[in-house]
Amino acid sequence: LLFPVSNLCGKCRPTDTDLLQPSLNFLYWSLHQTTPCSQQRAVTVLLSNVALLELLQKVLECTWLRSPPSEPAYLSSEDALLCSGWLLVASLLLYQHRYNTEVHQTLSLDLTEVLNAVIFRKKQPILLLVSIMQFLKALLRQNFSSSLLVIAGQNTALQGATQPQPSSLQDAALHPLAVQQVFPLVVSLQNLLVHKDLLLSQAVVACLETLVEYLYVKNQDVALHVASQPWHRFLLFTLLNGGQKSFLQPEVLRLMTLFLKYQSSNIISQKEISQILQEASEANLAELPEATSRALHLFLCQV
Length: 303
What we know:
Elements: H1 2-10, H2 17-32, H3 36-47, H4 50-61, H5 77-99, E1 107-110, H6 111-119, H7 126-141, E2 149-152, H8 166-174, H9 179-193, H10 198-218, H11 220-227, H12 231-239, H13 250-261, H14 270-282, H15 290-302
Parallel strand pairs: 1-2
């Protein structure tokens, strides 16, 4: 079925939402709900379809042209198609890298546009934000280096500079990211966590984890500075403003693990660590949701 469905997508226009929406969803699930052997074959089929990749390029570009709805939570059929497009491309990035699959047509995206979609948001529905963050996470994991994707809009801070300044040297280390992009992105991710939407929180924390990991590899000083921002502590207090056992929320545990990993002692203290251990000792571990159990396991390993 991959052949006719992918060929059908290649013959469509981005405005053919009624046909493209289920088709792209089918391609997405074909990649994820299959055996590793079949998964590799599926990736090969999709990446060899030039018309499909050209269509995906057009779909993603529609993100910058969309008209914000009156209600941010409203998901139109056009926005739903964008979600499918971003998720499919994120998956193709991941599996192309995993299997080193030959690419017959590259995609081109402006990094500044992608970052601005998260930073400024413009009444974007939660699902669209989550989809774009999944794509951004895939980019960060691959150090912005993929044979499937050409990154445009890379920072030019060093061009024409005879005496590189400290900020320029940091930009060079973080390339293609720039320091002036990193901090607005972190602040935006923090603000999104305050919404306390489960799906959004999972995506935001995963994106934040990957971002700090990328920064740490590129420039440890910048990564540690980001991880130790005082606003993180206020964010934790905001997230913990809930019912009992609030320390055992998956996103809280993962944030605590992140701060422990990068030694942000001004964010998480021995007191918070003790409180988490106390709550865990009193909880019925067998009844904890899978996401909580996994996050608690990672936290204890980090401790």
